Amino acid sequence: MTNQPGRWLGAAESALRAAPPTALLSTAHALLAHHVDARSVTVLLADYGLAVLQPVTRLPHTGASVPVHGAHPAGRAFSTQAAVMEVTAEPGMVTVHLPVTVRGDRLGVLSVHLPEPAAGTPGILELAAFATAVGHELLVAERDTDLYLQTRRRKRLTLAAEMQWQLLPGRGFEGAEYALGAHLEPAYAIGGDNFDWTLTDDHLTLTVSDGKGQGIQAALLTNLTVSALRNARRAGVSLADQACLADQAIYGEYAGAQYSATLLLRFELATGRVRAVDAGSPRLYRRRRDTVERLELDTQAPLGMFEETEYHEEPFHLERGDRLVVVSRGVHSARSRTKAGVFGEDALRETIAATGGSTTHETARAVVEALMQYHGSHDLPHDAAVVCLDWRGRTG
């Protein structure tokens, strides 16, 4: 480590910002070699299914992937969102695995092989801050190169899935008042399910859409739905009017032949008051202390089903510590190839209750994993979207 801990970080962040989009890894290696005597540096990115971490290398050649869930220290760093120090066979050397996360969106892990930091030094905290800086630059670099998007792929995405992933805001988001985590399956063939969110100083708006159909047609429908909702939202209209305008846009294109079941939620950050428009099938569950219940909203017509539908908002209130879980029809109405009935209320309640101590990300993943076990396969026949929100509330 340098003799003046922490003073190199500002210059290192500037160097990362100045690096060409495809040179983030080599730049990070050069910086860490100079400032902390790092011998090797690896960036591993989470794949679309959040099952493995894949190293950034010179494509098309890729290194071996690392499982997210298991004993591997890089996987543990990603799952726990905490630095993990791995003792190596080389005397005096360790490999530090640090989560690369930006505002709650988990991107991957930065692994640094370096001399073991001396006791009492703030070296790990500095490396963690450097890993976050790498994450910010990765998100910027993705606008100009396909390198990092390609690294995340264990296999080829369908065209519909390509369209859907480009539409998403991320897979997690975190603020002082809340934490969000989301999961989509089948990750490499998703078609119609989608989620979106946006933040102001006073409000968080969250939407979950379940477009009718599969494949390209479902992706086109959902793209229109999300774009119409964003357009209305950015015009500053109410939540109900956002639903009305999106409804008109979809009906104008499909005349009722295609429609999008959508749940719209608007959270008042200062108070925990929520306004909701339930336009279709996504279902909302709340875990309050030890009780899991479905919040029964007034189910209105899906967006685009009828011409000039009028929508109304419903209020409810969140308390600190509440957890909300939104699931699409592909979850709550899923059928097994070998079992009678549907996945259903009981299985959802049990899974949500069992994940009370887990993060929002792990809760969303656990719901999908339970669905896969019920279905008997990882190849789900229908899209499944799960969004989990933990409400902390505003202090002061």
Automatic annotation (TrEMBL):
PPM-type phosphatase domain mapped to chain residues: 173-391
Coiled-coil residues: none
InterPro entries: Bact_Sigma-Reg (IPR052016), PPM-type-like_dom_sf (IPR036457), PPM-type_phosphatase-like_dom (IPR001932)
UniProt keywords, alphabetically: Hydrolase
Protein's recorded name: PP2C family protein-serine/threonine phosphatase
PANTHER family given in the database record: STAGE II SPORULATION PROTEIN E (PTHR43156:SF2), STAGE II SPORULATION PROTEIN E-RELATED (PTHR43156)
Entry keyword Amino-acid biosynthesis: no
Catalytic EC class: hydrolase
Gene Ontology molecular functions: protein serine/threonine phosphatase activity
Phylogenetic placement of the source organism: Bacteria, Bacillati, Actinomycetota, Actinomycetes, Kitasatosporales
EC number: 3.1.3.16
Species this chain originates from: Streptomyces albidochromogenes
Signal peptide: none
Pfam families referenced in this protein's UniProt entry, alphabetically: SpoIIE (PF07228)
